[in-house]
Design brief:
There is one protein chain. The protein folds into 2 domains: 195 residues, Clc chloride channel (Orthogonal Bundle), CATH 1.10.3080.10; 195 residues, Orthogonal Bundle (Clc chloride channel). With 451 residues, it is an all-alpha fold. It contains 18 helices and no strands. The protein starts with 9 loop residues before the first helix and ends in a 7-residue tail after the last helix. α10 packs across α15, α10 packs across α17 and α11 packs antiparallel against α13.
């Protein structure tokens, strides 16, 4: 007779396998409703902003495409950037327009809205002026601020406000980057409580991001985001040494990222005497940026068109020019952000990483261009921002890297992030109470009010 397996009482199953059950909670559906509404409204707002700034104003001010050839910029570049800087300074002079640190606000679940309107107004001449800034900064501020404003206006619980903020950002970025499911790892990479109930929040974020994706994709003629510009690079056969190369390229990405970070800090100190003179400060920065752009037109705009030109013409461009274009663009970006201009740094950092990748493949032909570009495009922003896996996923999509070739890119991105934050910077675990290691307490925490 075949022995029968001992039966397990239902009570014992209940004690060992606890269902999550968030979908049965009325509070979850309140968060779901407000979160998805915030995500949808944020996606609409981001789409309108990008359409007005990129489709109308930039094309009106900058007709035609700029050449990458050095010293080919016309004098009108200086006129436009100087006037744009003057306008930025005037806005700073008469209203609060400080850029909100969106990535610090998301973990807190709240953000100041008193300077939101001013920051958005400053962002318009910052982008239309041709400066190397991206729309992800102002659209993220708009999206998060909208969700927080709705929660405060309706006097909703803090749990709902937290969800509204991140759902709004997911709706905007899911459309802007046309990569909705990249928002899920982003939500996991931000500080949150280690609880199964967080899956409920991830579901809200996913729906919001899908709505944003659907809006941008459909309105854009069923095409990938025009802002990102897909790159066309030859596919290569993955080899074992490519993983080591990915690690080394990640270190190169840290060096490039440090150039930007240290430059921004230095410019901030240099501009301290002009802190209370925004019109003089911003006009002077606009003039400097315009003169630099006349000599190096590749420093204009967010960099997606420029990177596409660099990739397509890589066999005809000098390595020194490519490296100079990347580094000068980083310096101008650092000056602008230190001087009070409002815009996102992610797109220009992607340009810098991609251009340095082209230079690496030129110097070391054994490294395939797709791998070099993908690794550096991932490593530079991953070193600076708190969502390295998300950035790596976006880069894989931009470069068209097949899944089998994704390993070096992921290695480079994660290496850059861990080296900068775990070695170069102070270790949060030993930096005192202000930056104490909270991993242990999060692991033991009960499900919070908002997960």
């Amino acid at each position: 007779m075949t022995p029968q397996a001992p039966s397990v009482p239902v009570a014992a199953l209940d004690a060992t396998v606890k269902p999550i059950g968030y979908a049965r909670s009325p509070d979850f559906w309140v968060r779901f409703g407000w979160g998805v509404l915030s995500g949808a409204l944020a996606a609409v707002g981001a789409f309108i902003y990008v359409a007005i700034v990129n489709k109308v104003l930039i094309h009106l001010v900058w007709p035609g495409q700029m050449s990458l050839i050095p010293w080919s910029g016309p004098i009108r570049i200086v006129v436009i950037t100087t006037l744009a800087g003057l306008l930025v300074g005037i806005i700073h002079r008469f209203m609060s327009a400080e850029e909100v640190d969106l990535f610090a606000a998301i973990p807190k679940g709240d953000m100041a809205t008193n300077s939101l309107i001013g920051a958005l107004l400053v962002s318009v001449p910052s982008l239309v002026g041709g400066f190397p800034l991206g729309p992800e900064g102002p659209t993220g501020i708009l999206a998060g601020g909208l969700g927080v404003w709705i929660a405060k206006k309706r006097r909703l619980p803090k749990a709902v406000m937290r969800t509204n903020l991140i759902s709004g950002v997911a709706g905007a970025y899911g459309g802007l980057f046309t990569s909705p499911f990249a928002m899920i790892p982003m939500a996991l990479e931000f500080k949150h409580r280690q609880s199964l109930y967080y899956y409920g929040t991830l579901a809200i974020i996913a729906v919001s991001a899908l709505i944003g994706f659907g809006l941008f994709y459909t309105a854009g003629g069923n095409r990938f985001s025009e802002l990102l510009r897909l790159l066309h690079l030859p596919v290569y056969q993955l080899q074992q040494w490519h993983l080591l190369a990915g690690f080394l390229l990640g270190i190169v990405g840290v060096i490039v990222a440090m150039v930007f970070a240290l430059s921004k800090r230095a410019f901030g100190k240099l501009l301290t005497p002009l802190r209370d003179k925004p019109i003089i400060r911003c006009t002077a920065i606009g003039l400097i940026a315009g003169l630099v752009a006349m000599a190096m037109p590749a420093t204009l705009f967010l960099g997606t068109d420029g990177l596409q030109q660099v990739v397509n013409d890589r066999d005809h461009l000098a390595t020194g020019f490519v490296v100079a274009a990347a580094l000068v663009k980083l310096l101008v970006l650092a000056l602008l952000l230190a001087g009070g201009f409002v815009g996102g740094p992610i797109f220009p950092l992607l340009f810098a990483g991609g251009a340095i990748g082209i230079a690496v493949s030129q110097l070391v032909p054994a490294i395939p261009p797709m791998m070099a570009v993908g690794c550096l495009m991932a490593a530079v922003p991953c070193a600076l921002f708190p969502f390295p896996a998300t950035m790596a996923v976006v880069v894989l999509m931009i470069t068209g890297t097949p899944i089998m070739n994704a390993m070096p890119v992921l290695t480079a991105g994660l290496t850059a992030h861990f080296v900068l934050h775990g070695i170069v910077l102070k270790n949060p675990a030993v930096a005192g109470d202000k930056n104490r290691d909270i991993d242990a307490e999060l692991q033991d925490a009960q499900a919070p009010e908002e997960t």
